[in-house]
Amino acid sequence: MEITNVSEYDATAKEKLPKMVYDYYASGAEDQWTLQENRNAFSRILFRPRILIDVSKIDLTTTVLGFKISIPIMIAPTARQKMAHPEGEYATARAASAAGTIMILSSRATSSVEEVASTGPGIRFFQLYVYKERNVVAQLVKRAERAGFKAIALTVDNPRLGRREADIKNRFTLPPFLTLKNFEGLDLGKMDKVSSHFNCCNLADNSGLASYVAGQVDPTLSWKVSITSLPILVKGVLTAEDARIAVQAGAAGIIVSNHGARQLDYVPATITALEEVVKAAQGRVSVFLDGGVRRGTDVFKALALGASGILLDDRWCSHWLLREKLV
Amino acid sequence: MEITNVSEYDATAKEKLPKMVYDYYASGAEDQWTLQENRNAFSRILFRPRILIDVSKIDLTTTVLGFKISIPIMIAPTARQKMAHPEGEYATARAASAAGTIMILSSRATSSVEEVASTGPGIRFFQLYVYKERNVVAQLVKRAERAGFKAIALTVDNPRLGRREADIKNRFTLPPFLTLKNFEGLDLGKMDKVSSHFNCCNLADNSGLASYVAGQVDPTLSWKVSITSLPILVKGVLTAEDARIAVQAGAAGIIVSNHGARQLDYVPATITALEEVVKAAQGRVSVFLDGGVRRGTDVFKALALGASGILLDDRWCSHWLLREKLV
Amino acid sequence: MEITNVSEYDATAKEKLPKMVYDYYASGAEDQWTLQENRNAFSRILFRPRILIDVSKIDLTTTVLGFKISIPIMIAPTARQKMAHPEGEYATARAASAAGTIMILSSRATSSVEEVASTGPGIRFFQLYVYKERNVVAQLVKRAERAGFKAIALTVDNPRLGRREADIKNRFTLPPFLTLKNFEGLDLGKMDKVSSHFNCCNLADNSGLASYVAGQVDPTLSWKVSITSLPILVKGVLTAEDARIAVQAGAAGIIVSNHGARQLDYVPATITALEEVVKAAQGRVSVFLDGGVRRGTDVFKALALGASGILLDDRWCSHWLLREKLV
Amino acid sequence: MEITNVSEYDATAKEKLPKMVYDYYASGAEDQWTLQENRNAFSRILFRPRILIDVSKIDLTTTVLGFKISIPIMIAPTARQKMAHPEGEYATARAASAAGTIMILSSRATSSVEEVASTGPGIRFFQLYVYKERNVVAQLVKRAERAGFKAIALTVDNPRLGRREADIKNRFTLPPFLTLKNFEGLDLGKMDKVSSHFNCCNLADNSGLASYVAGQVDPTLSWKVSITSLPILVKGVLTAEDARIAVQAGAAGIIVSNHGARQLDYVPATITALEEVVKAAQGRVSVFLDGGVRRGTDVFKALALGASGILLDDRWCSHWLLREKLV
């Protein structure tokens, strides 16, 4: 069957991928209410189409942190892409470059920043969690900088890992032939203690390595200055209050995100939260959005409500990958 | 099974028509949200029935652009009717005449204006797209005028062809034994370059022949004066703003239409948009509606909300045709 | 299976009755939207339950037009009950008497007023349509009076017969061994012309015999004075405007009814319309309701919103009958 | 299959338990609208998640009537647990103690207060209905006091037993090898007359033994003073009006409950009613809630709306039991 829209990749992925892998990509947290709502909320937004307008010349290009891209669509950071295909993040990187847009590489990628950089030219950002071990954070940032990554997308919405029940049932774990490449060769400090569980979802992501110890976070984010001169996009904002704090703390931009509905269930759809965040940002920084985008009309709705662009997120970004290689 | 309402033609059509043809008639754009909503919006409108009212004498006749018709129901322009049956537009024309109402012939009909005229007496209007090649438009209008057509329905809602995914999957194309008869014998100018693809949906309707180059449209529509003295109904208005512009530009009437939900998805149902258009028209021109009408009660709802009549549109008009010949 | 609520009679009836008969009892008009809504509207009304209230002594008796009944539940007039069972209206009459409540006999019953009266004591009202031939109406009323019926329920919501598509498909007709007994022996005048079609749904109910020619109705209903001294309940009111007119015209009571959703589709649920009718009646006459009542809690909701009682209507009243004889 | 959330116990219970027993635990009253709504109402409450908040130290402990518990989750009183497993209330008691929280034992338990007390240390409350025979109530309270129970949860929402149709169809009755242990050895007075029907749902719970004769209830609840010095939680409040009365009457706390949707159908979800009860209580007593709680996020929603804690109610408390022994 010819695939005619992004949602149809889902059926193909379900058919071609092992259940554990498909479930990992496709699941939201708990009841998956927000997963559905990320889509439903878009369908409640209607157009008022005007006629007799000159649309013969359309310009879809836009600028993100000073970088010009061909369309207001970027690739969201999504972990562990090689589970879907051996080319993993390489293919995504090449696809993003071919499309003339930005890829944001997950720190939990199965390819390192250097490997992704070696696939060819392209504008790339690096996603990062805030670990208790700041030295690890510093090493990751340095590594991304050296590999030519242009900005940091700082994920701030996972003080705990979201409860994705399919992963628990499947006892999800990274296949043994894959590793989280960006952590290789780093001095992990206390994180070393859990390194043997590095690829285990429950331990590595949640209790140990990946737990976000907010008590040590400087609310002004001033600590980031000592680590990097790269601009920082704060990813995971859903309220006006946090948008204001992010702007005051010096964020270069805000990504309205509910982590693809994979963290806390029963939060609003991102397209619902967008308006208050845009209003709170007062035009001082650009606001982006991920979650639930499947159609060009969804992108247009986000732009119409004040977003500067959208990010294709976890589940369907892997389909972009599939498109290049598997379909 | 006896067919007792318009919707039941759908099942019959699905059974009797090749999948490619059925899908072409039945599909809406993309997620088909508006296709559903065109129906759903009617079902949210309720009656406040009065009792003890004299309804012994009912007069359903009405007047459209000065032409008296037996019921406030006309036949919307729908393309390519001979795909459903060899009699195609002939049968529709005869059915409309027998019912004492107006048929609007699509410019993309599989029968020419002359052929339709030859089926017998009847009031007929001609539907038209605005092509970049105005000479083609002029020739089409002249041809319709000469064949006795009484008005032009100008479709203004397809700067691009809507994305109907079933057509893409089916690689929809007009069967080889059929042609778009109204274009035969015309000087197509630059359109000639795409004439070999004339019957191909993707090329002919979208990129080439049918693309509506709004940049060349005179917003006052004054260009139409040089082409025809026929009254023009502007088809595809969904907002008060465009209703006002259409009236100022000299439209003889407005058709509230979302192109049978086949163009842009997530626009309002036509019955929803009707009220603001009627209000904006201020009684200066008549307002008609197509989209989602399946019941006499739907017609009544449209009239109660200010419409002067409705048009049976794409999908189900073909059933009217089926009724005469196939069922 | 033990039947534990009124709705479960539906499954039993579907199993035991011929399709044509079941469909006749169970169908609403056209899309059957109002049929569903009659139920759905009840389920949107919630209770605010109080605690620590003395409910040890409950009195369910009430008074209708001066007649005391055991519960605020009466039997709505429903036509042609002998199609369900040979005992037909006899069984319903006995059930109503046993329950200590009022039966309203349909003028289109398959038992005559005399036959129903002969089943034993009981308070009974007679339902009537307003026929063009007033002499027929007068004869029907006289006959009911003589048989001891105590009031007239005048159905005013069927200027035309509702379009019940299952009946059309089934070519519904009264089985040959049954007749509409109340019309036997009457001087039918012009109605005699259609008497050969008397039992045919389409002709008898709609075009000919049963058509309600409102143009000849005296809006003050004063004509009824010359015919009967019985109190008249106006059945089929759904608006405040008509409630006021009915009161002014001397109605003894109002029945909020949409004819069991069998006449005009897309009218409000009766429980929705109740409030405005009660308010308009200003306590000058009692207001009753039929349509959608399936639970004691439904009855309570109707009472809480101002009804003096409810009528079990078409579809499920026949189940009361079934209970006595068939189950 | 690994059970990953409370709702999944339902499937397991349905598989492992006899239909009569499963239905007894799982059914709500009549149409079970409120049973669904207890869940649905939670899903309409959304979070506004904040970021960059220190959540490294979380304290879930709370205090109920002066007793410290590890989580704001208690075990609601649910009758007849030994139908699910021979360990019945023993296992629930041990599970509650292990979890560091309070179990409320139903007076209609299949284990006596003494038996539950003998399972080991733990904080336990005793649930009670208000019987006409106050001497029986007094004996029950004394027995619970002596067994070390610390408070009374007084159920006030069953002047009649709710109509659970599955129980009627199943002719539900307590299996012969089980008895309602707390009534054994008591002087039942007039209740003795129905003692042979003691285990029969319809008679024992409804018409005879269990009927709540509100006419004899002192609205100030002052009679309880003569019976017990234990604090009383009033269980079954759904309105502000009754919350105020309960506080004035000296209740130590209020449990917002609709009896697990097993009593009166079409009452609001407890999470919906919570806000007005909390407001009416004005902080003078603690407000708890049962009904529909399945997720930690549900508990959080209840706390955010003013509850001091929640009770896991009928249906799923039995799963806690199942967890320990059956799964």
- Overall structural class of chain A, as computed from helix and strand content, comes to alpha/beta
Measure the end-to-end span of chain A.
Answer: 10 Å
What best-fitting shape of chain A do the alpha-carbon axes yield? globular
Number of strands of chain A: 10
Strand content of chain A: 5-15%
Assembly state of the chains shown: homotetramer
Q: What string, H for helix and E for strand, traces the elements of chain A in order?
A: HHHEEEHEHEHEHHHEHEHEHEH
**Total tally of structural domains of chain A:** 1
Instruction: List the total number of helices of chain A.
Output: 13
Mean of residue pLDDT values of chain A:
85
Can you tell me the CATH superfamily of chain A?
Aldolase class I
Rg calc of chain A: 19 Å
* Largest β sheet strand count, sense and barrel closure of chain A: 8 strands, parallel
Please supply descriptive tags for the structure shown above.
homotetramer, 327 residues, alpha/beta, TIM Barrel, two-stranded antiparallel ribbon, 13% strand
Structural summary, described in words:
Four copies of one chain form a homotetramer. Chain A has 13 helices and ten strands. The longest helix of chain A has 13 residues, at 134-146. Chain A has helices at 8-16, 19-26, 33-43, 88-99, 113-117, 134-146, 165-170, 201-207, 223-227, 240-248, 270-281, 296-304, 314-325; strands at 62-64, 67-69, 73-75, 103-105, 124-129, 152-155, 232-237, 253-256, 286-290, 309-312. In chain A, the strands form two sheets. In chain A, strands 3-10-9-8-7-6-5-4 form an eight-stranded parallel sheet. Chain A has a two-stranded antiparallel ribbon with strand order 1-2. Chain A has a single domain (6-48, 61-326), classed as TIM Barrel (Alpha-Beta Barrel), CATH 3.20.20. Mean pLDDT of chain A is 85; it is low at 193-219. Chain A is α/β, with parallel strands linked by helices. Chains in contact: A-B, A-D, B-C, C-D.
